[in-house]
Design goal:
2 domains; 66% helix
């Protein structure tokens, strides 16, 4: 167990933080949604009903959507775009290990490398493919939840329901998306640029403390 925790500490830590944050979102989202319902003259809903409500689905997946989009684009853009002196960029002046073609004769190479062909072609881009698929799935779930929440609110007011085709062009849905996307792009910009001049000893996201600002990469 001790070895497992040591080998997976970073992943376990962030998974635990994710679970704590999700539970916090659920608890306070449930209270907030019921407060809104009561203010609208309706009755509070049960906890189980909240977990399938548009309010919960929309608020959850609009955040996941922006995270996966940010990560997918960051992975793709770092293939061919560089930032001089940043720890998040490939070096301008030397070939990087990640750019070389995979060798099936390398010791302990993953099985898709040894298999070759289409399997290897997919494996070479598997990180980007999965991140974009997660983005698309989250985008669809966000749209579904947002539409459901919109129609729940319209129902309380006695107004006609929105169709999916009409709601896809609705300002509310795209406002929800862009307000999250912009924050993710800002955070990537911040780490790319700040890592040029600032350091954190011991972090893989920082250059060595005594390295010059002009040095690119970790």
């Amino acid at each position: 167990m001790k070895t497992f925790l040591r080998n997976n500490g970073l992943g376990i830590c962030f998974l635990a933080l994710f679970i704590v944050a999700l539970l916090g979102q659920i608890i306070f989202g449930f209270k907030e949604h019921n407060k809104e319902l009561i203010e609208e003259g309706s009755t509070a809903i049960e906890f189980s009903a909240y977990l399938v409500s548009g309010h919960f689905i929309q608020s959850t997946f609009e955040n996941w959507e922006s995270e996966f989009l940010q990560m997918a684009l960051f992975v793709v853009f770092t293939i061919f775009l560089m930032q001089k002196s940043s720890s998040e960029s490939k070096d301008f002046d030397k070939e990087e290990e990640v750019d070389r073609e995979p060798s099936p004769t390398r010791k302990d190479a993953p099985w898709p490398v040894k298999k070759g062909g289409l399997v290897l072609s997919l494996y070479k881009h598997s990180l980007t493919i999965v991140l974009f698929l997660l983005f698309i799935a989250s985008f669809i779930a966000h749209f579904y939840g947002s539409l459901k929440d919109e129609n729940e609110q319209l129902s309380l007011k006695g107004l006609p329901m929105e169709s999916a085709s009409d709601y896809f062009g609705d300002s509310r849905f795209w406002f929800e998306s862009f307000q999250n996307w912009q924050s993710e792009f800002l955070s990537v910009f911040a780490i790319v640029v700040l890592s040029v001049y600032l350091r954190q000893i011991g972090s893989s996201q920082s250059k060595p403390v005594d390295s010059p600002n002009i040095e690119t990469g970790v």
